[in-house]
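dumping this here before i forget
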Amino acid sequence: MLSPSHDHAPSPLVGIALACSGYSLFAIQDAVVKWLVADYAVPQILFMRSIMIVIVAGIMVRRLRHPSILKSPHRKSLLLRAGLMLAAWMAYYSAARDLGLAEITTMYFSAPIMVVMLSILVLKENVGPMRWLACIGGFAGVVLAANPAEAPSLVPAGMVIFAGFCWAWSTVLVRLVSRTESTLNQMMATSFLFVVACGVMLPWLWKTPDLFGWVLMIGLGFVAAAGQYLLYEGFRHAPASTLAPMEYSGLVWAFFYGYLIWSEVPTPHVVAGAVLIVASSLTLVWWERRQMLLTRRLTA
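structure:
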Protein backbone atom coordinates (compact mmCIF):
# COMPACT_ATOMS: atom_id res chain seq x y z
CA MET A 1 0.00 0.00 0.00
CA LEU A 2 1.33 3.45 -0.89
CA SER A 3 1.94 5.99 1.81
CA PRO A 4 0.16 9.30 1.26
CA SER A 5 3.18 11.32 2.17
CA HIS A 6 5.48 10.07 -0.65
CA ASP A 7 8.59 11.52 0.98
CA HIS A 8 10.55 12.87 -1.99
CA ALA A 9 14.03 14.31 -1.69
CA PRO A 10 13.81 18.03 -2.49
CA SER A 11 14.30 18.55 -6.23
CA PRO A 12 13.36 22.07 -7.38
CA LEU A 13 14.04 21.30 -11.05
CA VAL A 14 11.62 18.37 -11.03
CA GLY A 15 9.06 20.56 -9.28
CA ILE A 16 9.51 23.30 -11.88
CA ALA A 17 9.12 20.85 -14.78
CA LEU A 18 5.95 19.34 -13.29
CA ALA A 19 4.46 22.75 -12.51
CA CYS A 20 5.16 24.13 -16.00
CA SER A 21 3.50 21.07 -17.54
CA GLY A 22 0.48 21.54 -15.28
CA TYR A 23 0.17 25.23 -16.14
CA SER A 24 0.28 24.45 -19.88
CA LEU A 25 -2.75 22.19 -19.38
CA PHE A 26 -4.50 24.87 -17.32
CA ALA A 27 -4.18 27.21 -20.31
CA ILE A 28 -6.07 24.64 -22.40
CA GLN A 29 -8.64 24.40 -19.60
CA ASP A 30 -9.10 28.18 -19.60
CA ALA A 31 -9.55 28.28 -23.36
CA VAL A 32 -12.18 25.52 -23.27
CA VAL A 33 -14.08 27.21 -20.44
CA LYS A 34 -14.01 30.57 -22.23
CA TRP A 35 -15.55 28.81 -25.22
CA LEU A 36 -18.22 27.18 -23.05
CA VAL A 37 -19.24 30.25 -20.97
CA ALA A 38 -20.74 31.79 -24.09
CA ASP A 39 -23.55 29.18 -23.93
CA TYR A 40 -23.51 27.58 -20.47
CA ALA A 41 -23.56 28.80 -16.85
CA VAL A 42 -20.28 28.69 -14.90
CA PRO A 43 -21.64 26.35 -12.16
CA GLN A 44 -22.72 23.81 -14.80
CA ILE A 45 -19.28 23.89 -16.43
CA LEU A 46 -17.55 23.50 -13.06
CA PHE A 47 -19.91 20.66 -12.13
CA MET A 48 -19.10 18.67 -15.27
CA ARG A 49 -15.37 19.40 -14.94
CA SER A 50 -15.30 18.39 -11.28
CA ILE A 51 -17.33 15.22 -11.58
CA MET A 52 -14.87 13.93 -14.17
CA ILE A 53 -11.96 14.69 -11.81
CA VAL A 54 -13.75 12.89 -8.94
CA ILE A 55 -14.27 9.82 -11.12
CA VAL A 56 -10.66 9.72 -12.37
CA ALA A 57 -9.12 10.40 -8.95
CA GLY A 58 -11.54 8.03 -7.20
CA ILE A 59 -10.63 5.12 -9.49
CA MET A 60 -6.90 5.72 -8.98
CA VAL A 61 -7.26 6.12 -5.19
CA ARG A 62 -9.07 2.79 -5.03
CA ARG A 63 -6.53 1.01 -7.22
CA LEU A 64 -3.58 2.41 -5.25
CA ARG A 65 -5.36 1.81 -1.90
CA HIS A 66 -4.82 5.27 -0.49
CA PRO A 67 -6.04 5.87 3.08
CA SER A 68 -9.45 7.56 3.34
CA ILE A 69 -9.42 11.34 3.13
CA LEU A 70 -11.90 11.34 6.03
CA LYS A 71 -9.07 10.23 8.32
CA SER A 72 -6.83 13.10 7.27
CA PRO A 73 -5.54 15.41 10.03
CA HIS A 74 -5.85 18.24 7.49
CA ARG A 75 -9.59 17.94 6.82
CA LYS A 76 -10.21 21.58 7.74
CA SER A 77 -7.36 22.81 5.53
CA LEU A 78 -8.66 20.71 2.63
CA LEU A 79 -12.15 22.14 3.11
CA LEU A 80 -10.82 25.71 3.28
CA ARG A 81 -8.70 25.17 0.20
CA ALA A 82 -11.62 23.73 -1.73
CA GLY A 83 -13.76 26.73 -0.79
CA LEU A 84 -11.05 29.15 -1.89
CA MET A 85 -10.64 27.37 -5.22
CA LEU A 86 -14.40 27.33 -5.80
CA ALA A 87 -14.55 31.09 -5.21
CA ALA A 88 -11.54 31.61 -7.48
CA TRP A 89 -12.96 29.58 -10.39
CA MET A 90 -16.43 31.12 -10.10
CA ALA A 91 -15.02 34.66 -10.23
CA TYR A 92 -12.40 33.92 -12.88
CA TYR A 93 -14.66 32.16 -15.34
CA SER A 94 -17.49 34.64 -14.86
CA ALA A 95 -15.06 37.37 -15.88
CA ALA A 96 -14.14 35.35 -18.98
CA ARG A 97 -17.42 36.43 -20.59
CA ASP A 98 -16.24 40.05 -20.76
CA LEU A 99 -12.47 39.79 -21.14
CA GLY A 100 -10.16 38.19 -23.69
CA LEU A 101 -8.17 35.10 -22.76
CA ALA A 102 -4.90 37.04 -22.76
CA GLU A 103 -6.42 39.79 -20.59
CA ILE A 104 -7.81 37.55 -17.86
CA THR A 105 -4.65 35.44 -17.75
CA THR A 106 -2.43 38.51 -17.54
CA MET A 107 -4.35 40.06 -14.63
CA TYR A 108 -4.64 36.72 -12.89
CA PHE A 109 -0.88 36.54 -12.69
CA SER A 110 -0.84 38.90 -9.75
CA ALA A 111 -1.26 35.60 -7.82
CA PRO A 112 2.42 34.49 -7.84
CA ILE A 113 3.49 37.68 -6.02
CA MET A 114 0.82 36.92 -3.39
CA VAL A 115 2.13 33.34 -3.11
CA VAL A 116 5.64 34.59 -2.32
CA MET A 117 4.25 36.93 0.35
CA LEU A 118 2.12 34.21 1.91
CA SER A 119 4.92 31.63 1.76
CA ILE A 120 6.95 33.91 4.01
CA LEU A 121 4.11 34.67 6.45
CA VAL A 122 2.46 31.23 6.56
CA LEU A 123 5.03 28.62 5.50
CA LYS A 124 8.06 30.44 6.96
CA GLU A 125 9.96 29.68 3.75
CA ASN A 126 13.31 31.29 3.08
CA VAL A 127 12.74 33.35 -0.05
CA GLY A 128 16.13 34.43 -1.34
CA PRO A 129 16.89 37.47 -3.51
CA MET A 130 16.94 35.47 -6.76
CA ARG A 131 13.39 34.16 -6.21
CA TRP A 132 12.22 37.69 -5.42
CA LEU A 133 13.88 39.04 -8.56
CA ALA A 134 12.36 36.30 -10.73
CA CYS A 135 8.90 36.92 -9.29
CA ILE A 136 9.16 40.72 -9.58
CA GLY A 137 10.55 40.41 -13.11
CA GLY A 138 7.64 38.19 -14.07
CA PHE A 139 5.15 40.60 -12.56
CA ALA A 140 6.76 43.52 -14.43
CA GLY A 141 6.25 41.50 -17.60
CA VAL A 142 2.60 41.04 -16.71
CA VAL A 143 2.14 44.80 -16.22
CA LEU A 144 3.87 45.49 -19.54
CA ALA A 145 1.73 42.91 -21.33
CA ALA A 146 -1.46 44.28 -19.76
CA ASN A 147 -0.81 47.78 -21.19
CA PRO A 148 -2.54 49.73 -18.37
CA ALA A 149 -3.20 52.66 -20.74
CA GLU A 150 -6.04 50.55 -22.15
CA ALA A 151 -7.68 49.47 -18.89
CA PRO A 152 -10.48 46.87 -19.16
CA SER A 153 -13.86 47.01 -17.43
CA LEU A 154 -13.32 47.39 -13.68
CA VAL A 155 -15.86 44.83 -12.44
CA PRO A 156 -14.52 41.84 -14.44
CA ALA A 157 -10.97 42.99 -13.69
CA GLY A 158 -11.74 43.10 -9.95
CA MET A 159 -13.19 39.58 -10.17
CA VAL A 160 -9.95 38.31 -11.73
CA ILE A 161 -7.79 39.96 -9.03
CA PHE A 162 -10.05 38.44 -6.35
CA ALA A 163 -9.63 35.04 -8.04
CA GLY A 164 -5.86 35.51 -7.96
CA PHE A 165 -5.93 36.16 -4.21
CA CYS A 166 -8.02 33.04 -3.57
CA TRP A 167 -5.72 30.97 -5.78
CA ALA A 168 -2.65 32.27 -3.90
CA TRP A 169 -4.10 31.14 -0.57
CA SER A 170 -5.05 27.76 -2.00
CA THR A 171 -1.52 27.34 -3.41
CA VAL A 172 -0.01 27.86 0.03
CA LEU A 173 -2.46 25.35 1.49
CA VAL A 174 -1.42 22.82 -1.18
CA ARG A 175 2.15 23.09 0.09
CA LEU A 176 1.01 22.55 3.70
CA VAL A 177 -1.33 19.65 2.94
CA SER A 178 1.04 17.97 0.46
CA ARG A 179 3.41 17.16 3.29
CA THR A 180 1.09 14.37 4.45
CA GLU A 181 -1.73 13.97 1.92
CA SER A 182 -1.56 12.19 -1.42
CA THR A 183 -2.09 14.18 -4.60
CA LEU A 184 -5.06 12.05 -5.65
CA ASN A 185 -6.81 12.49 -2.29
CA GLN A 186 -6.43 16.27 -2.58
CA MET A 187 -7.86 16.23 -6.09
CA MET A 188 -10.84 14.11 -5.09
CA ALA A 189 -11.64 16.12 -1.94
CA THR A 190 -11.55 19.49 -3.70
CA SER A 191 -13.54 18.38 -6.72
CA PHE A 192 -16.13 16.60 -4.59
CA LEU A 193 -16.94 19.90 -2.86
CA PHE A 194 -17.22 21.51 -6.29
CA VAL A 195 -19.68 18.82 -7.38
CA VAL A 196 -21.86 19.34 -4.28
CA ALA A 197 -21.77 23.16 -4.34
CA CYS A 198 -22.41 23.47 -8.07
CA GLY A 199 -24.85 20.54 -8.16
CA VAL A 200 -27.38 22.31 -5.91
CA MET A 201 -27.57 25.14 -8.46
CA LEU A 202 -28.18 22.92 -11.49
CA PRO A 203 -32.01 22.73 -11.31
CA TRP A 204 -32.11 26.47 -12.08
CA LEU A 205 -29.11 26.67 -14.43
CA TRP A 206 -28.88 23.40 -16.36
CA LYS A 207 -28.84 23.56 -20.15
CA THR A 208 -28.52 20.24 -21.97
CA PRO A 209 -25.35 20.40 -24.10
CA ASP A 210 -25.22 19.39 -27.75
CA LEU A 211 -22.71 16.73 -28.84
CA PHE A 212 -19.88 19.23 -29.18
CA GLY A 213 -20.72 20.68 -25.76
CA TRP A 214 -20.57 17.21 -24.17
CA VAL A 215 -17.18 16.56 -25.81
CA LEU A 216 -15.80 19.88 -24.54
CA MET A 217 -17.09 19.39 -20.99
CA ILE A 218 -15.86 15.80 -20.67
CA GLY A 219 -12.52 16.70 -22.25
CA LEU A 220 -12.27 19.65 -19.87
CA GLY A 221 -12.49 17.26 -16.93
CA PHE A 222 -9.64 15.08 -18.18
CA VAL A 223 -7.41 18.07 -18.97
CA ALA A 224 -8.11 19.62 -15.55
CA ALA A 225 -7.38 16.31 -13.78
CA ALA A 226 -4.03 15.93 -15.55
CA GLY A 227 -3.10 19.57 -14.88
CA GLN A 228 -3.96 19.34 -11.19
CA TYR A 229 -2.04 16.10 -10.75
CA LEU A 230 1.13 17.53 -12.32
CA LEU A 231 0.91 20.77 -10.32
CA TYR A 232 0.27 19.05 -6.97
CA GLU A 233 3.17 16.69 -7.58
CA GLY A 234 5.33 19.72 -8.36
CA PHE A 235 4.65 21.12 -4.89
CA ARG A 236 6.07 17.93 -3.38
CA HIS A 237 9.44 18.66 -4.94
CA ALA A 238 9.85 22.42 -4.59
CA PRO A 239 8.80 25.27 -2.27
CA ALA A 240 5.74 27.33 -3.17
CA SER A 241 7.88 30.45 -3.58
CA THR A 242 10.10 28.63 -6.13
CA LEU A 243 7.17 27.50 -8.24
CA ALA A 244 5.27 30.81 -8.06
CA PRO A 245 7.12 32.45 -11.02
CA MET A 246 6.56 29.30 -13.10
CA GLU A 247 2.87 30.15 -13.24
CA TYR A 248 3.79 32.96 -15.61
CA SER A 249 4.62 30.38 -18.29
CA GLY A 250 0.86 29.87 -18.70
CA LEU A 251 0.64 33.41 -20.09
CA VAL A 252 2.48 32.40 -23.26
CA TRP A 253 0.03 29.53 -23.77
CA ALA A 254 -2.91 31.87 -23.20
CA PHE A 255 -1.70 34.19 -25.96
CA PHE A 256 -1.26 31.21 -28.27
CA TYR A 257 -4.74 29.79 -27.70
CA GLY A 258 -6.29 33.26 -27.79
CA TYR A 259 -4.88 33.78 -31.27
CA LEU A 260 -5.62 30.26 -32.46
CA ILE A 261 -9.28 30.24 -31.37
CA TRP A 262 -10.42 33.89 -31.27
CA SER A 263 -7.80 35.54 -33.52
CA GLU A 264 -6.58 37.72 -30.63
CA VAL A 265 -3.38 39.22 -32.02
CA PRO A 266 -0.78 40.03 -29.32
CA THR A 267 0.34 43.68 -29.30
CA PRO A 268 4.01 44.70 -29.02
CA HIS A 269 3.37 45.29 -25.31
CA VAL A 270 2.18 41.70 -24.95
CA VAL A 271 5.17 40.28 -26.81
CA ALA A 272 7.65 42.33 -24.75
CA GLY A 273 5.92 41.31 -21.53
CA ALA A 274 5.93 37.65 -22.50
CA VAL A 275 9.68 37.82 -23.24
CA LEU A 276 10.33 39.31 -19.80
CA ILE A 277 8.16 36.66 -18.13
CA VAL A 278 9.92 33.77 -19.88
CA ALA A 279 13.34 35.29 -19.16
CA SER A 280 12.50 35.56 -15.45
CA SER A 281 11.35 31.94 -15.34
CA LEU A 282 14.45 30.65 -17.16
CA THR A 283 16.69 32.66 -14.84
CA LEU A 284 15.09 30.95 -11.86
CA VAL A 285 15.60 27.53 -13.46
CA TRP A 286 19.30 28.34 -13.97
CA TRP A 287 19.63 29.57 -10.39
CA GLU A 288 17.95 26.50 -8.87
CA ARG A 289 20.17 24.20 -10.94
CA ARG A 290 23.26 26.10 -9.81
CA GLN A 291 22.18 25.89 -6.15
CA MET A 292 21.49 22.17 -6.46
CA LEU A 293 24.95 21.50 -7.93
CA LEU A 294 26.63 23.55 -5.18
CA THR A 295 24.72 21.63 -2.51
CA ARG A 296 25.78 18.30 -3.99
CA ARG A 297 29.42 19.39 -4.05
CA LEU A 298 29.31 20.48 -0.42
CA THR A 299 27.71 17.24 0.73
CA ALA A 300 29.87 14.95 -1.43
